[in-house]
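Field notebook, page 440. I keep forgetting to write these up properly, so this time I am using the form the group agreed on. The chain and the ligand, iron/sulfur cluster, are recorded exactly as supplied. Prediction of the bound pose follows.
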Amino acid sequence: MDKPLVSLVRYDQPLEPVRRAVELCGGLDRIPADAKVFIKPNIVFWTKAVNFPKWGVITTSRLINDVVTLLREHGVSDITIGEGMVLGRANDTETSAHAYETLGYTKLRDRYGVKLVDTFQRPFREVDLGDGVKLNFNQDILASDFVIDLPVMKTHAQTMVSLGIKNLKGMIDVTSRKRCHNADPDKDLNFYIARLADPMPPILTIIDGTFTSEYGPAFDGVIHRRDLLAASWDVLAADIVGSNLLGHPPQSVPHLAHAAKNRGRSLELESVEVKGEAVEDHAQYHGWAFPYTEDGTLPVPMAKRGVAGLAYYKYDTSLCTYCSGINGAVLSAIAMTWNGEPWDNVEVLTGKKMQPRPGANKTILLGKCMYQAHKDNPEIKEMIAVKGCPPKPEQIIKALHQAGIMADDQFFANLDRMPGMFMKRYKDKPEFDQGLFTIE
Ligand code: SF4
């Protein structure tokens, strides 16, 4: 049997490298001019409040523009760009509109009639993916003839890497996203996301390695300028190459292991044919998990500062995106409160499967899932429940105060401006070009 083709090229100028990457992996000939094509970028995060680092976080607009140009040259006119961003409010249409405007997608709409879709304003359809996995997918992508999947080449704190298969998580609804982050040890997050590509029409995956991210997926990662593109009509093959480029053997990435098993495929690099650059010339280890103490009770930076009397256990895969979004902020709020005086053996439980531990005097249950799991747990000495889903900032501050951690009442008031603080990391570094996230 022929090996799936993956192209790997240097992306050091607009358009031509994308054309070459696509040609080397099989071209666009299979897409007829009257096909409906759905482009799925990666806009993992957005805020209107402030300019924030997009390098290694969001697909470059240069790649979006180049892909649309190639499709147009090929005669395709029915093109949709769609994303389901993680938003604080279900009825928030302004944030996605702001993202599409800022990233230049509206220019593609005005010039070529490209349709822009916020999936949360569109219908979803339940798809049975087998083995009890049922997820609600955006109807537009399911009804398209071809998908062009444009993930960023990044690591991910929960799934190790986030590439072609994982990028499709943005196509399911909130209920399904929460379902993916379940507490079942056999059918966990990795088991679920391994199936995300299964109901899709044919997918051309083009992994955007203009910038790569360590400790992704968000704006607080460590970003590198790499100028790479990896493309394939076989999403697993693209991810095998992408994972190797990030320095992680795909066999060690649980969702890729599930996806290969489901397809009866190998994850060896030799199982795919790479055209263009050699993978080994560009592979570089990228860290992924946020560093915690060996016993998993505190993030390393807090332990180094000598924080005592607090156990904030390491997140697991059952912590869903919506609680993840607030988790880092809670840790920052606590860290800012530390004055060298040990707290009263407070523990913080998150996600869906953490257990209270002996010796804790106060147990904060962060989120509805933890509250439901432990509301009747006799092992807990003093329960402090934050029942929201996701928990609300004012509830969190109240709980911290009840535990004796006197976090600033106003800490969460300016939370939406916090991503802007990370811009200073990139000051006077011309390789971090903001122009790659606009379309002229
Ligand atoms: S409580 Fe948190 S982890 Fe549980 S479903 Fe809600 S947002 Fe997700």
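OBSERVATIONS:
- The chain is about 25% helix and 20% strand.
- The chain has two domains: 5-288, 300-409.
FOLLOW-UP: compare against the apo run.
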